[in-house]
Amino acid sequence: MAVGWTRDDAVLDQIDATVDAGVQRAKSLLPSGVSLTHCETCRVAIPEARRQAIPGVRFCLGCQAKLEQGK
Ligand SMILES: [Zn+2]
Q: What does the alpha-carbon distance between residue 28 and residue 68 come to, in Å, rounded to a whole number?
């Protein structure tokens, strides 16, 4: 158990470091807070259903897909 725990802990430390370094990028990709009525990138209206399905959504479906694929 100890070996497995130590390995997992090291992985978690790496994840924490990655998260800290990528906070700004994560915020641009992961929705949080208030949903926008219009896409932050292309300004197209975001459907109400999408805004309610994804709290804090900031992008239309097309832009979200591009962001997630264009890492
Ligand atoms: Zn868009």
A: 10
pTM, whole model, 2 decimals? 0.53
Residue 11 CA to residue 59 CA, distance in Å, equals 31
Residue 28 Cα to ligand 1 midpoint, Å, equals 13
Asked if pLDDT for residue 35 goes beyond 70, the answer is yes
CA of 37 to the centre of ligand 1 (A): 11
Query: CA–CA distance from 55 to each of 9, 10, 28, 66 (Å)?
Result: 31, 32, 14, 19
Q: Name every residue whose Cβ is closer than 8 Å to that of residue 8 and which is 6 or more positions away in sequence.
A: none
Cα 2 to middle of ligand 1, angstroms:
48
